[in-house]
Amino acid sequence: MLSADDPLDRIVALALALALAALLVVRAVQKDRREYARFRRYRSTARRQAMLRRWLAESLVLFGGSAAVLLAIVPAQLAPVLEQAQGVPWVAAVRGFFASAPGLAGLVIATVGAVLLTVVGLRSARREGGVVMVGDIAALLPRNRPELAWGAGLSLTAGVVEELLFRLALPALLFVVTGEPVSAFALALLVFATLHAYQGVAGVAGTALVGLLLTAVYVLSGSIVAAIVAHAVIDLRTLVLVPVAVYGVHRVPGSVRMPPPLAAVRLRESGHPDRS
Question: What is the enclosing helix (H) or strand (E) of 180?
């Protein structure tokens, strides 16, 4: 068990953190980008499903396995890194606000508003024939009914294993190295965002914002389950709800032929939508 109070443990934790970060980042920049480029060219849904199945299995092994190993090494740091993060003055102030009646009311209103905006946005997207996509993710969206199952599986798997690794285990390991929580969560967030390099700069930036939101959910609530649910819901919206509600892919049976690529509405610099 590694401790933040032992200098030798800090060295060991630093070596582990660097090795894991290097493995994940190099894999994302080289392997993931190469495989995604190949995935975009696939015209057979059978080949697409095989790749989706492979990615799901790799996610379980790599992210889930890494999280399990780290959680076995730094269990004593899980509570301290969270408690110290919650003790940062501005974080404590935000938690205090959400614990009050106005804060709870604001949270409920914001949640209802987000749901309503999603419904309105999906209806508008159906009329436009596509959705605005942040980053190069159009190829990931399921294109028929069988692929929806893999989209759901990837969403649920990512929600569990990625939150256990990037919001729970890795910050605890980095806390041993840095001795303070803000940099520990920030560095874990940086690695999380870099893993989406295959989506381009916009995808990395968008992922960083989502990761920041998920970090806030975990730190403010104190519950990793809340972060897992939030992550899964965000991914299910992209990989299940949008393909079903906007493109109607649940009505497309599986076949050996690839359905047409899903349309995307992109924003020009002037701010007007441009379908491409």
Answer: none
